[in-house]
Structures are given as structure tokens and as C-alpha cells.
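Notebook, bench 3.
Goal today: get a predicted structure for TPR repeat-containing thioredoxin TDX from Malus domestica so we can plan the truncation constructs. The sequence was checked against the plasmid map this morning, with no discrepancies at the termini. Length recorded as 396 residues. Pasting the sequence as submitted so the record is complete.
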Amino acid sequence: MDAAKVEELKEFISKCKSNPSIVHTPSLAFFKSYLQSLGARIPPVPKMDKDDGDMSDTKQHFDAESDPSGNNDDNIVESDIELDVTDVVEPDNDPPQKMGDLSIEVTEEMQDAAQIEKSKAIDAVSEGMASSCCETVISICSKLDEAIDLITEAIMLNPASAILKATRANFFVKLNKPNAAIRDANAALEINPDSAKGYKIRGMAKAMLGLWEEAASDLHVASKLDYDEEIGLVLKKVEPNVHKIEEHRRKYERLSKEREIKSAEQEGKQKAEAREWDALSALKDGEVTGIHSARELETKLSAASKASRLAILYFTATWCGPCRFISPLYTSLAGKYKKVVFLKVDIDEARDVAANWNISGVPAFFFVRNGKEVDKMVGADKAALERKIAQHAGSI
């Protein structure tokens, strides 16, 4: 091995010893995986100070959601979800890789040549992974780049091969280039919608981007098509995050629903209060209200019901002597029982009302609560009238 490269590796190892957390650098994920495969103990991810501008390595932030109505008193502020994002990497922004022309006619010779290039690519990756520990850092990256060039040549020869594009996607995952891997996986699945490797690699790439639910969905499909141990290992990292996100979503959906119910209750209460106010404004406390039509009577009785008040309907006539005898008392009782609605109907003026209530004699008094007759009295017995009013008004 070149002496200069050995010196570079010595310097790198020295940095690792002085700062072991360097192995958690996203671009060195392949190196960390290699060390773990040898049984090495990897130091834990260092925690960030809460005052630091960056998020903790094991936390994914969910922005607070405000009440769009602008009612700050009922805002639901979502908390952070503690997610394991140890293996999440920065998204790659390389130009799209070559996909080949799907319209070309692929001959057997082209298929064979593509297979040869694929084999060379796989051998290059295997050679890089088999390098000694000191050579690994430099060797694996260069071998993966070489493998991608070779598999790209294979794809250009046989663009309609889903397995070739899924294989290149796998190489991109090893290079921590999830977006490139997703492009290849998507292309593979367009060619073969049942490509287990296409779903698997796309799921792994989405996990690298922190797209946990999408990753889990792809990995579960891959598992049903062709389960392997690697899928299970990735799901063990992905599913706990998915469960936390689902639990978080259910929690805030429940809180949002409770807020909607509370808002509806408040709105209903306000409408009821408004109706009660309108009803009260239509009534005259301490006074006797004259009724001149059936429609007017309906309005007053409805207002009394909405205000939860007792209404007394007094039928009289100008020619009735007993009516003239008891009318002053009825007026004075209206002043005494201000929360009772005192109504008065002249049977000769409002004949429709008298007919609706089947009036056969006056004076007649009907006690109405919530639109229903609860008692009545016919005659000019002052004591009886006052007693009945006291009885029914007392239950208000």
C-alpha cells in the first residue's frame, strides 16, 4: 500500500481516537457499519445542548400547529417527538443518473454484456468490503464509485432490466445517496411492480431521509414479496419511529376533535344565549301584554318557552262584569311576579285565539309552560288566582 495513504489513514485513526464521535458523521456511515460487523463497540451519539441551534441527533422536530381560527386561547401546540434519527443523512442533490432508453431493442448479446458489467460491479463492491481495516475508508468509496460506473454501463445496454436499476440503487444506498437510490428504485418498480428489491432499497433510502412511514410501507411490501434478514433489521429501526408518529398523530387528532366539540358547545351556548336574549327583549317584565292575533300569541308563548318562563293567558271581554272585577288584580300580580309572562286576550277582538283555545266563558286563565298547558282556572276568584300564580311561579 502507498506510504502516503498509510500516513493519511494513521492521521484519520488518530482523529478517531481523540474524538470517537466522528464515526457518527453521515458520510462515514459505511465505516461505522463495517466496524460494527467486526464486533466493535461504537460510542453513543453525543447529546446536543438544548440551547444549541441544531436539533439533537436523536430527536426529530415537529412544528407547532396553530388554530387557524386565530383563537389563541384554544391553540393546540404540538410537542416534539423523540425519534431515533442516528442513521439519517443529508439528502443528496446530484444530477439524475443515466437511465437508458427503454425504447431500444435489446439483443441477447446486449443482455449478456450487461450481465458481465453487473458481475464486475458486484465484484468491485465485494473487493472494497474485503479490504483491510486500514484500507477500508478510501477503498470502499472508490470501489462503490467504480461499481456504479460499471452498473450504469450495464443499464445502458439493457435499460428494461428492473434488477439492474435496483442493484445500482443498492450501491447508492451504500454511498449515502438516498435520493439517487429512490430514483433507481422508482424506475425498477415502473418496469416490474413486483420487484421486492425495488421496494426494499426504496424503503431503506427513505429511512435514510427520515421518511419513516413511507419507508415502513415499502419495507413491508418487500417483506411480503421476498423477506430477508436485512429488511427485518431496517424495520427494527424504522417501526419504533412510525409507532411514535402514529401515537403522536392520534393524540393531536383527539385533542383537535375535543377542541371542535368544545367550540361547537360554545357556539351552541352563544346561540342559545342570543335566542334567550331575543326572547327576553320580546317580553315586558312586570306588565300585561295584550294579544291581538293567533300569530302574536304564538310569538309570545315561544319567547316565554325559550326564556324558560311561565306564561299566563287571560281571556276577557269588555262586557264581562267579573272580568272588570279581577283585571286590576291581574295587573298588580304582573308587577309582583316580574319573571312571569302575563298575557291578555279580548275574545271579541281576537276571535281566532279564543276559538283555538275553546273559550266558552270568561274570565278564563290558562297557565302555560314550554308551550304546554299545565293548569287553568275559570271565574273571578281572586284568592284562587293568586294562589295558582304563586304555586306555578314558585317552580320557576
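The longest strand covers residues 372-378. Residues 229-282 form the longest helix (54 residues).
Flagging this for group meeting.
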